[in-house]
Amino acid sequence: MICRGRFGRVSAREEKRMRSVVGREPMEGALGPWGMRKARRGVSCAFGLALFTAGCAALPETTAEAPALPSAYAAADVPLARRDTGHWWRTFRDPALSRLVDQAMDQNLSVAQARARLTAARAQAAAANTLFLPTAGAGGTAIATTNPSETDDPLRRPLMAGFDMSWDVGLFGLAENANRSATASAAIVAADLESVQISVTAEVARAYIMLRAVQQQHVIARAALEARRKRSDLVQTRIRTGLAALGEEAEAALALAEAKAELADLDARAASLRLQIATLLGSATPDPALETAGPQPMPAEGLPASHPADLLRARPDVRAAEQRVLRASAEAGIALSDLYPKLRLVGTIGAGAPFTNSAFGVAGGPVLQIPLLDYGRREANLTARKAQVEEAEAAYRQTVLDAYKEASDALAALSASRKAVTGQKAAVAAAAQTERSARVLSSEGLADRARLWEAETALLDRRRRLVQAQEVEAVALVALYKALGGAAPVAGRE
């Protein structure tokens, strides 16, 4: 039902005439003193009803409350550190890695898509701020007719032109909640962009670390292949002299074949990782500079960590979940405002008025829309929106808990990997000492070359395991930085 208070109790003909532009004569000349009093009374009634019911549509603003978290991460035996939201990958002190990350931020297609979505969301949020501001438009109508007789029907005037103005007054929190919803939506998209950037950065770092580890393993595998060829030659010499044991030739041939197969597998893995990095950089052509083996990235000493509550500020998925709670609350407020009347102010200024004695006029007034009967649809929508607020709150709390668990697991994995690296370094040192002793004994004629070959092979195997352990450590550090929201915690920095 629409109540137009500007008309008061006037006749149908007068109401029809009032819908268009009034003439140069004052409004009172068109309606008369009695009609004007009724019109003003209707306007006052409309505003009074709207303002009286506006205070009844207040929906309390919902805020996301995080679950209680421990003061330190589970399985973390490191001191807390302050956060530095700078370039966390620089902790590896590898210029090539920094260059690749910078290229990925400029060229990655997933990041480009997320940036475009953010631009669109911000434009929509800016437009939402104007939804409840006055608007104006211009229009004209020209009608040709073969009937020479004049008519008072405004829809059949030969020429009409004017400016139409309207203002939807966002009462009962409608304007505020619409702005809140649009702002929260833009914030969600901004957090999604940051999440994509963090993921792309982590994937570039992870692929680069794995590539350098594969290249180092390839160097070791080539050395192992040469050592096994020497053993094969030694076995052939022993066979010619009749000193070879039964099955020694087959064992040497098998070891040589395994070394060749390992080299082929490492070559394939390196090619796949170079292509993966190129894809992350938005290209189908791998960087030729990555074909040359480079040093393995080594993380800085010390475990990065932060207080679990920092997740609420650092992780973009947590911030996005919080904004979803605010958006759901705003949409519930919009659903609540639908239960109450809507007020709109309209006006027209134009030429070609419906009055026979006027060529120019002005008309305007309030339009009040009062909901009466919709079979409970608005109430059902409000109930659904409130349930969505509860769902968003539960999702936010779950996101915080998942973030805490992910960071705790990553921190524990990094701690374990660093202990493994320490153990492998000790094993390499012991194997190197054994290899040196075997080499001295062999040069003095106190041990055969088979013993020296076994010591060299054991050393190469320990070096290969150390490279793998260092790769696991570096990848675990990347996973931790990603779990912490992509920010590098640095102790002692404000």
UniProtKB/TrEMBL annotation:
Q: Which GO terms describe its molecular function?
A: efflux transmembrane transporter activity
- Record localization: Cell membrane
Superkingdom assignment: Bacteria
Which keywords are on file for this protein?
Answer: Coiled coil, Lipoprotein, Membrane, Palmitate, Transmembrane, Transmembrane beta strand
Protein's membrane topology: Lipid-anchor
**Keyword Transmembrane annotated:** yes
Q: Looking at the UniProt record for this protein, which Gene Ontology cellular component terms does it annotate, in alphabetical order?
A: plasma membrane
- Please classify the protein's predominant subcellular localization into one broad category: membrane
Q: Which parts of the sequence are annotated with region: Disordered?
A: 286-306
Which ranges does the record mark as transmembrane? none
Q: Which NCBIfam families does the annotation name?
A: outer_NodT
Task: Please give the PANTHER family that the UniProt record associates with this protein.
Answer: OUTER MEMBRANE CATION EFFLUX PROTEIN, OUTER MEMBRANE PROTEIN-RELATED
List the protein's name: Outer membrane efflux family protein
